[in-house]
Specification:
Helices cover 41% and strands 13% of the residues. The two termini are 33 Å apart. It has 15 helices and twelve strands. Strand 9, helix 8 and strand 10 form a beta-alpha-beta unit.
Length: 399
């Protein structure tokens, strides 16, 4: 990775863009793509389809959420994501959604690695793929020590090694091989000196719909991202800035792809984005700030905050330190206000339709294949309008 901070790239504000759809194009810095392959020319990059996803809403009852996902599916939604932190479990909700939808893919976003045994993770993924008729994507991530040790009560150790072994075990289970795994973190069956000695290699009784359920890894750090590019079908970063993505993640992705099994196909990139489309929505950038401040300032202790580290790698070292100082001192509003304007705008899709269309094209050009929308209009009608508009803009970006 580059040793110095990423260069600052000016991001045009929506006010600089003619409102409405067509109009003059803004000049912006050239975007280097994270897409792999020998030819990374601009023409090839423009051919990529961008899929539209959305995080399942928790604002009402889950039956209401499921009904809304059905409506969004009819409007062109491609993927529905269900999160799992110290919340209700995601599995029951994904199973419910599988029963009431027909086409939309369903993704855990994410299952923490430490909260289930590898075999149970594999069984759960195979089961959700079964009830959805092959529409499930297994999203995994290490989470962090505050949740893993504070909620699950297990040590947060060796996330890289555990990730590799869990994915290996899952794929062995889905192939219906007798499960034997002798790794640094997992021994299956359990050795006699660690248990009763009665364990024996077993294989999944049922035949999975697919012997390879797609795996998405949420990853931020250089080694984690390299691992995702090596072993996963999909990768989920956070706060994706198209203009700086190569500077922050390009080297790690290239290293991972160099070891990637061609059978995995091209690495897909899933990016979450706050979205508001209109001529009078610029003020909604202020609603993005508290979330960024929470993660950069308060998600972890000093020296152990992965999100703060990412802000530093983006080139905001002084600002990240100030935000963390303010947040940990209880000054949350001041921390939000101290966030760089460029960061707030670049990781969002907020502005007139023409501006958002240009930003969707920029994300696609940088290699993003799925935009997981976080609509800032919290009403079901507003979310529906957002998905319909984004579906149209994504189709336009695909050419």
């Amino acid at each position: 990775m580059p040793s110095g901070p990423a260069p600052t790239v000016p991001l045009p504000s929506p006010s600089q863009r003619e409102s409405g759809g067509a109009g003059r194009r803004l000049s912006r810095a050239p975007i280097r793509s994270l897409r792999g392959g020998a030819d990374e020319g601009a023409d090839d990059r423009q051919e990529c389809d961008v899929r539209i996803g959305i995080q399942a809403s928790y604002s009402g009852g889950f039956q209401q959420t499921a009904a809304e996902i059905r409506d969004l599916e009819a409007a062109g939604l491609d993927v529905a994501l269900v999160s799992e932190v110290y919340t209700f479990d995601a599995v029951s909700q994904l199973g419910y959604l599988a029963a009431v939808t027909e086409r939309v893919e369903l993704m855990s976003a994410i299952f923490p690695l430490y909260s289930r045994t590898p075999a149970l993770t594999a069984m759960t993924a195979a089961g959700l793929d079964y009830v959805s008729d092959g529409r499930f994507i297994l999203g995994l991530g290490a989470s962090g020590p505050q949740v893993i040790e504070g909620w699950h009560g297990v040590p947060y150790d060796a996330p890289l090694q555990r990730t590799r072994e869990v994915v290996e075990i899952c794929r062995q289970v889905w192939r219906r091989e007798r499960l034997e795994h002798h790794g640094k973190k997992y021994e299956i069956p359990l050795p006699a000196d660690q248990g009763t000695g009665l364990g024996k290699p077993l294989k999944l009784i049922n035949t999975p719909v697919r012997e390879r359920v797609p795996v998405m890894l949420a990853a931020l750090g250089p080694k984690n991202v390299e691992l995702a590019a090596e072993i996963a079908e999909l990768w989920q970063p956070i706060w994706f800035q198209p203009e700086k993505s190569m500077d922050v993640w390009g080297e790690s992705l290239a290293a991972g792809r160099a070891k990637r099994d061609p059978a995995l196909g091209e690495l897909q990139i899933v990016v979450g984005v706050p979205v508001a489309i209109g001529d009078d929505v610029d003020a909604l950038h202020e609603f993005v700030r508290p979330h960024l401040a929470l993660y950069i300032g308060g998600m972890g202790a000093r020296g152990k905050n992965f999100y703060n580290d990412l802000a530093v790698r983006y080139g905001y070292e002084a600002e990240a330190e100030e935000v963390q100082d303010l947040y940990l001192s209880g000054k949350k509003d001041e921390a939000a206000a101290a966030l760089p304007e460029e960061l707030v705008r670049s990781v969002s899709l907020i502005g007139p339709e023409g501006y958002v269309a240009e930003r969707v094209a920029a994300f696609a050009e940088a290699g993003v294949t799925t935009l997981a929308l976080q609509p800032l209009d919290g009403s079901p009608e507003g979310r529906l309008r957002t998905v319909e508009t984004m579906r149209r803009l994504a189709d336009r970006a695909a050419g």
